[in-house]
Design brief:
The chain is of the alpha+beta class and about 70 residues long. Helices cover about 55% and strands about 20% of the residues. The protein has a two-stranded parallel sheet with strand order 1-2. Strand 1, helix 2 and strand 2 form a beta-alpha-beta unit. The protein is elongated, with a radius of gyration of 20 Å.
């Protein structure tokens, strides 16, 4: 009984680890609201654009759509 319980626990742990791998293949679109216009040519906008670019590079399959709020 103890071996069966140990095997069942291991199986559950392996299955739990596989969920993020399966989900990683999906494309994800995130919408970010900000007062900054990422197309503007100022320091804050350039930094925001660079941060978004780095985030998307570090997280394949994730795309951030920026919506400027006025």
């Amino acid at each position: 009984m103890r071996k069966l319980l140990s095997a069942l626990i291991c199986l559950c742990l392996v299955a739990t680890c596989m969920v993020p791998v399966a989900m990683a293949s999906e494309e994800v679109n995130l919408t970010m609201w900000t007062f900054l216009d990422v197309n503007a040519d100022n320091g804050r906008s350039r930094v925001l654009k660079e941060l978004i670019s780095r985030f998307e590079a570090a997280n394949p399959g994730v795309h951030i759509e920026v919506q400027t709020q006025e």
